[in-house]
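BUG: 3D viewer hangs when loading the predicted structure for this chain

Environment: internal workstation, default settings.
Expected: structure renders.
Actual: progress bar stalls at 90%.

Input used:
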Amino acid sequence: MDISINERNLAHIKRKIDSGKYSSTDDVLDSALSLLDEHDAELESELVDLRESVRRGTEQADAGQVVSAGEVFQELRQRNASLTKPGR
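Structure tokens produced before the viewer hung:
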């Protein structure tokens, strides 16, 4: 496999090695790719959660279990007012 890395990223890798935290380019890339894998897994988990929330909300709406926008905004205004009271 032939991989090319632009000058900006090469300089970044060099700074990491020069800091003493990494001993080689492979160490820097291993760490970076591990973090990328973690990030991707977190995003996938969030997407699964979001899809489940949408599914539940759709089921509730289909069943008529909805709250009017006016009620939602009124509750939000009340929460905001209680959080912004002086002395709090």
